Batch of 2 targets.
Target 1
Amino acid sequence: MNKKFICIEGNIGSGKTTLSNMLVEHFKAKLLLENFEENPYLKDFYKDTKKYALHVELSFLADRYQQQLAHINEDNVIVSDYLFDKSLIFAGINLQPAELKIFTAAFTVAKEYIRNPDIIIFLDAAEDLLKHNIKKRGRNFEENIPTAYLQKVTNAYHTYFKNNTHLYPIIWVNVNKYNVVGNEKHFNRLVNMIKSKTDNLIHYI
C-alpha cells in the first residue's frame, strides 16, 4: 500500500484509538499512541485550565515530537491516533495570546522535522456522542469536560481541516451515521477509501 503514514484525528471521545488499533491489525502496521497518561499536567489542567494550559500543551508537544521523530524514517506502515498539528489546534483553544506566541514559536521549529501524513481520517462526532463515549471509558478527570469546550474543539478541527485540503487527502467521517469501529461494512468502506484516495481533497462519508 502506498499510504505509509496514516493519522487518525477527532475530538475527545471520538474513537481515535479504537479505530487506530483496527487499522493496525488490518494493515499489519505499527501503532503510535498518544501518551496522554504520561502528561504530568493533564489532570491539573482540567481543574484549572488557565493556570496549567501552557504546561500541558508544551508537555504534549515535546512528547509528540520525540515519539514521531523516532519513527520518521521507517518504511513500514504506521498508524497514529493523533496528528502532530493537534498541538497547535489545542493551543489555539487553550492558550492566552502571549502564551500562544511562545508555543507557536516552539511548534514551528519542531514541525520542520516531522513527517507529514499520507492521509488523515477525521472522526467527526456530535457532542452528545462524545460525552457518552467519555463517560463510558471512565477516566475521572475527563467526566466533567463542558459541552461548550467540546464544541470549541470540534469547531477548531473543522476550521483546520477545511484550510489544509492541499496538503494531504482527508477522509471526513460522520461518526453519528457511519460507525467505522462497530460496523464491518462501514469499516471496510473506510479501508477502501484509504487505499484509493490520492488527491489532496476532503472526502466525506
Target 2
Amino acid sequence: MQRYLVVEGNIGVGKTTLTQLLSQAWEIPALYERFLENPFLPKFYEDPKRYAFSVETAFLSERYRQMRDEFAAHDFKRSGLLADYSFYKSLIFARRTLDKDEYQLFSELFGIVNSQLPQPYLFVYLKTNTDRLLENIAKRGRDFEKHITAEYLQNIDAGYRQFMEQASGMRCLLVHTTDLDFVHRPEDLVLLKKLLEADYKYGMTEITIR
C-alpha cells in the first residue's frame, strides 16, 4: 500500500485503533495525532465560545508541525503512510466552532499552511451512530471529554459530511461502521482493508455495510 491515506471519524469512533491495525497489516508507518498536548482543549469543553479560537489555532499549529516533520522523515510515495487525522480537520472543526469573522481569519491562515503539505490519496471517514460514540467515550474515561454532548457529536458529523460533499478535488470515502467490530471480528477488519485498497473517483463515495 504505497499511498498516503487518512482515517478520520468522530470522537470515539475508533479511528486510531483502525489505523494501528491497518499499519500492522500493510507494514507501513502511521502518524497519530498528539491531541492531548493541546493546553486549551479541557478549557474549550468547559467554555466552547471563549476558547474556540485558541483551541483551533493551537491544533492548526501542532498538526502542521507534526505533519511537516513526518513527511520530512518518510518517503510516503515509496513506503506509504497512514494517519489517524487529516490536516483538513482543523478547518472542519473551526467552521463549526468559530463565529463568522474568526472563521474567515482562520480559513485564510489554513489555506496558507495547507498549501505546503502533501494531499492524501484517500480521505476515509468512519461513521457511527451517536449513542455508540457516547458509550465509547464513557468507556475510555477521559475527564476532559465528560462535557461532550450528543448535539456536539452530531454537529461534528454534519461538518465532515459537508466537507466531503464539497471536496470535489479529493477522493472521500464515508463508511458506516456502526455494525462493524474490526477489533474483535477479523472478518470486519479484512472487509475494511479491502475497501480502503480499492480505487475511487473524486468526490464522496458513501458505503453502508450490513
